[in-house]
Amino acid sequence: MNNDKAVTEKTKAGNIYEVNIRQYTAEGTFNAFAQHLPRLKDMGVEILWLMPITPISVEKRLGTLGSYYACSSYTAINPEFGTMADFLALVAAVHALGMKIIIDWVANHTGWDHEWTHEHRDWFVLDNNGDFVEKHGWQDVIHLDYTKIDMRNEMIKDMRFWIEHCNIDGFRCDMAHLVPLEFWLEAKQECETIKPLFWLAECDHIEYHAVFDVTYAWEWMHVSDKIVKGNASIAQMKDVLYKYSLYPAGARKLYFTANHDENTWNGTEYEKYLGAARAFAVFTLTWPGTPLIYSGQELPNVKRLKFFDKDVIDWKPTIVLHNFYKSFLALRKSHTCLNGDVVPYIVTTVYDDKILAYFLEDGNSKVLVILNFSQVDKLHINIQHPNLAGDYINISSGLAYNLKETERFELQAWEFMVYASV
Asked: Which of 94, 145, 217, 225: disulfide with 272, CB 3.0–4.6 Å?
């Protein structure tokens, strides 16, 4: 398979679902999570990202179970989750359903009792006393020294292990910008001699697209969650989106209203976005880029999950937002204007301080999105675009509409409207 073609195909129309194995089920195992795969497939999930599945260090462990991101080995399975055979079975089950699976890769640091600390102490950053160093206030981890070529080679060897032995489809790279870009360039080159992979970076740096297919839209998120509280404006968010539009062709940003860090440390999307949580979710699902859904958002989950201790997601018999996500993930596949490189036309309204409206079109499809990010009712706006006229379906109601070049809409507090061409 041609790698360039693979990169193009894997970054179009993609979506990612982040899996917190520990909190997903009472058992907290691969096998228990596997029971949810048919539901996630039906919802339209394409790429499953598993938070780190490696063993967790005991020394300086936080809480009762510790942080996934403080590993003690790069090539073993956290026994909390099951066995290597269980993981291989999960990968096979994911692939059988036509989905992809990527794993979290923590290359910047390890836990304090990682196996390398005994065998290769010189692979770590050491202070003047020869002691391990941590630079960012994370007391349960220590930093690796990327001037050490042997360490870098072993890191790449360990990454290749998961591809060759487990047939994973890529990596989500934790705090990727803390690791030299030249390492990632080498790692990608070496790993993709095995198979084309999907590369997601937890960073908001344009230069990292030399390696990564998708990078985080951190700047967008930090502006967006201030809007409903009056600490930022929609105009500021538009500035960030314009900045992203200048990225190289094919570069994608990851848009989300929740992930493992945000949910635990900054609050659920309902704490952060108040009544606009659903409207911002619609944005992540319709703006050009890659949407991320975190474990339990489809419930919806309204609690912060503990990071270092067991705290099971409270699954209900009815997954209230299953069809909400299903409809939008299906829309992204059926309407090509949402899965390529179409630049949205941002529509100006008399309420630009409260409403974001945009229109996307290509030769095959058209989508109109109107989002009220305020708690103000009865906002009347006119939407005008020379190519707007046509037959549409309202994605929420399923009702058919014939829109003209100029249309008038009324939005209630926090309301969103999405019209897709038929």
From this structure: 225
- What is each CA distance from 89 to 23, 93, 162, 305, in whole angstroms? 20, 6, 14, 27
Residue that is written with structure tokens 């994370």 in the block: 138
Q: Comparing C-alpha atoms, which of 293, 287, 229 is closest to residue 260?
A: 293
CA distance 344 to 210: 24
Is pLDDT at 13 greater than 70 in this prediction? no
Q: Which long-range contacts (CB under 8 A, 24 or more apart) does 246-251 make?
A: 247/206, 247/209, 248/206, 248/209, 249/341, 250/7, 250/8, 250/11, 250/213, 250/341, 251/206, 251/209, 251/213, 251/215
Q: Where are the alpha helices (DSSP H) in 133-274?
A: 149-166, 181-191, 218-227, 234-245, 260-261, 269-272
Residues β-bridged to residue 178: none
User: pLDDT per residue over 373-387, tens digit each?
Assistant: 999 999 999 999 999
CB 117 within 8 A of CB 110: yes
Specify the DSSP class assigned to residue 51: P
Question: Phi, psi at residue 188, to the nearest 5°?
Answer: -65, -45
How far is CA 184 from its chain centroid? 19
Q: Of 177, 222, 170, nearest to 203 (Cα)?
A: 177
- Could you tell me how many residues make up the chain? 422
Q: Which residue has the tokens 């379906």?
A: 393
Neighbours of 187 (CB within 10 A): 22
Phi and psi angles of residue 110, each rounded to the nearest 5 degrees, phi first: -130, 175
Angle between helices 181-191 and 149-166 (to 10 degrees): 40
pLDDT averaged over the chain? Answer: 96
Phi/psi at 116 (nearest 5 deg)? -70, -25
The CA distance from 58 to 100, in Å, is 31
Instruction: Indicate the DSSP class of residue 248.
Output: P
Got the DSSP string for 251-285? -EEEE-S--HHIIIII--HHHHSGGGHHHHHHHHH
pLDDT in tens, 321-337: 999 999 999 999 999 99
Q: How far apart are the first and last CA of the chain?
A: 34
Distance CA 55, CA 72 (A): 6
- C-alpha distances in angstroms, 200 versus 7, 14, 16, 77, 139? 12, 12, 10, 21, 26
Which CB contacts under 8 angstroms, 24+ apart, belong to 394-397? 394/418, 394/419, 395/327, 395/328, 395/331, 395/419, 395/420, 396/327
